[in-house]
Structures are given as C-alpha cells and as structure tokens.
Amino acid sequence: MTGPTAVSETLYTSLANQLPSFLSNALLQCKRLPSLPAVALNVLEITRTSDATLSDYARAIEHDPALTARVMSVANSVHYLRAAQPPHTCFEATQRMGLDVTLATVLSFCLFENDHSARGRQHFWRRAITSAVAASYLAQQLCPHQAGSVFTAALLQDIGILALQTAYPNDAERLYGTEQASHGHTQQVEKRYFGCDHALIGAWLLAKWGAHDDLIRAIQRSHEGLETDNPSVLCLRVSGALADAWLSADPAQALAGVMRQLRTLATADEWALAGLLAHLEYTLPPLMETLGLSQPVSIDSVRLLQEAQQLLYEHTLSLSARLDAQQKARDALLDDYAQLEQRSRIDPLTQLANRAWLEEQLRERFHLCLSTKRTMSVVFIDLDHFKVLNDRFGHQAGDEVLARFGKMLASLVRVGDLAGRYGGEEFLVILPDENAEGAKRFAERITRRLQERPMARIEQEPLYVSVSIGVACLTDGGFGNERELIDAADQSMYFIKRSGRGGVSVYGQ
C-alpha cells in the first residue's frame, strides 16, 4: 500500500479478512483494477483539513502535468468563459471552478480517463456526481467545515461497483446493466453473488490505495441506515438516497419516499429540500457535460418537490396501513414458503439435509469451486454394523441411533458447511474451502465424539457405535463432476470397511 497517508495495516487486514477469499483473490489478480496516483491521494488528504485553501489544492494538482492540463481545460470550457481572461495558472483554474468541480474533475480524470463512456460507467458516474453535489450542499448546512471531505466520500461511495465491474466483466451487465434497479436491490444481489456488497469492497480498495482511515470508514458504512448522530455521516448516507430519487424513472414517487425517511430525523427541519433540489437543477447539467457524461432527463425542481409533497400528503394516512397489511401478508406467505422449502430439504428423522438437497448443493458448490479456483472436501460416513444393530435391538433403537448421530453431527459442522443423511445409515458432509488434512481432522473429531458418547441406551446400558469414514478433496484428483468426488470418498470409506471398520481414510493417501 502506498499513499501520502498510508492506512494502518490493521485496518487493511481487517477489511481484507471480511472479504470472501475467492473474491479477494479475484480482485488482487485483476490487473485492470482502478488505482489512484499519488497526486489524487494528496488531494484526498487535503480534503480532511477544514481550513484548506484552493491554493493547497492547486499546488497538489500541479505535481501532475496531465492532470493540470485537464483542470485548465475544464476551467477554459464554455461554462467558465464568463471571466474576462482565461486562467493561466492552476490556482486561477481551481478558483474559477470552485472546490466541488475541481475534486470531481481530478477523480474523474484519474479513474475514468478512458473508460467512463460505457453503459455501466455512465450510470455509476452520474449517481456519484449527483450524490456528491447533494452531500456537499447538505454539509454546508449541517457541518460546513467538513464539506470537502463529505463531497469526496459521496463521490467515491460506490467505487466498489467499479472494482466489481472490472474484476467480473462478464457479470457486470447482469448485475449493473439495469439502471432502474434500486440501489438496495443491487446490494442484495451483490451479497447473494459475492458474499458482501460494494461498500465493503470500496473501503478495501481505498485501503489498498493508501487513503486515510476516515475516508475508508465512511465508504464502508456509507450505505447503512440514517440513524446516526454524526452530521457528516448523515449527509453522506442521505446523498445516495437523494441521487437515486433524482435519477429515478419516477423521481416524485422516489423523492416522497426519501422525505418520509427524513421526517423521522431530529434535524428534519434543517434539510431545506427546496434549496437542495434547486441547487441540483442548476449545478448538475453543466457539471455532467463538463465531465463528458450523457444528460439525464431535465428536471424542474420546483415541480418535482410539489409533486412529491402532494404524494406524501395523499398517502401518509392510508399508505402506512396498506403497506403494513401487505407486509404482514407477504411475511406470512414467505414464512409459509420458507417452512415448506425447509421441510423439503430436511430428513425428518435426523433433521439434517436430505439426499436431494445434498446433491443439489454439492453440484452448485462443485462448479463454483472450479470457476473461482477454490477447494472443497467431502466426508462420507457409514455407521458400522447398523444392520446387526437393527436386527438385534429393533428398528426403533436404530432410529434413535440415527437421530442422535444426526444431532451430534450437526453440533460439529461450521457455518457454511452442510451435513446430511445420504441414505439409510450413510451420511455426507460438504466442507467448502477445506483441504484434505482439515477434513481428516473433522472426521477424527467425529470418531472421538462417538467414543465418548453413547448413541442410545438399551435397558439402561449405553450403546456405542463406530463409523467408517472416507474423505476426498477436490484438489487431490482430476474429478470431472461432483459424482466422481462422492465416489472417491465412498471408495475411501469402503477401504476402512474392508480394513476392520472404525477409522478414517483419505482419498489418494
């Protein structure tokens, strides 16, 4: 990590540890991952200083001739020709454009110099600019000494999307190609697909660049709720919702939703939405054009606010009741569906996954491991002499052994593992991201637990059972599909059966 203010190794490590391993590997191996030059990091550092002047920004920018030329070019564009003389220095250029436009120009040039015209980039950058302008205006009302840092955080709050688009170009259109999808929906899709959302990835990327800790933490928590006592954090979080409303296909309806949220805040009367919307209407078109972005539909801020207020007035009394009723009905349906779906996946005797669910999950995880170059192990378990046990003590005793073994097995697996009854007295455990040695240790814990605890009591006498276990790891053989992986574990288990039962065998060892 490099930069004018290198982030502590502890914070970077903490963020890296929160990323799923397959995702962090993909990001680190991506040679086209966005990066910021030292001059841009210096500019970000200056935004932390409440008494920073335009001269400070100009001096930092002048260290990069190409960036200086870009700033001078923007300052000489048609939107800034009101001055009698063109600017001759970087300071004069920044003075003419103002802080917000200067920061947007610097980060646009550094991050999107050759690539912001793509469809996904256009929507990403339009939202970023709209959020930043809104956040800066709000900060001027609530925390004026932090306006520069708030503008920067809002501008970069979705930088994780850019990283994901770059690292997973084949999935970018499906994940981000629908501009009208809500930002909240996008986060949910990211969490299902990647195991985390772009806010965490953005914070990790900034830490990798060497940005300062405050900016990194602001990005990481930028998409959380509005319940905060920190005015700069609140400005940042509200800015995203306002940007989504401004860019929505139905801005009045979306803005009414934002206004309902703002009404719950103690500072609700300080927001002055009329002034904010007028500021967006006046500021965004020239700024978008300056940065080479296509123009969204023109919005009349006065009419927009009136429509949103009317919608809010019309629906305040009835909408909450209807939404509550609909939500309760939906929750009930989802709960019923979840219970039905859960029952369809569970073996009723052992309360573990049934064979169908095991095979479906193993098939999905097998192909995921192949595509992401991750590993996985399976543990195949067979209760020894189970037929003899049934014949001698009856099927009721056999069922009790199976049920207690299932409960014991469930207590040993980790979150993310999947244990199930494969059939009869056979069980299967899927261990994602586990190598053969780790899977063997897990299997040995099973055998030790069985030595310590009886699985039933017959006429008050404890009944102990043993198991034969086979282990197979995806990376230890050229398996073409998940069925071959199970067969390998099954073969290892039968090796133990033939060798006297009661032990663990690892495929290939």
Automatic annotation (TrEMBL):
SUPFAM superfamilies reported for this sequence: HD-domain/PDEase-like (SSF109604), Nucleotide cyclase (SSF55073)
SMART domains listed in its UniProt record: GGDEF (SM00267)
Domain GGDEF: 374-509
EC number: 2.7.7.65
Pfam families: GGDEF, HDOD
Endpoints of the signal sequence: none
Catalytic reactions of this protein: 2 GTP = 3',3'-c-di-GMP + 2 diphosphate
Protein name as catalogued: diguanylate cyclase
UniProt source species: Vreelandella piezotolerans
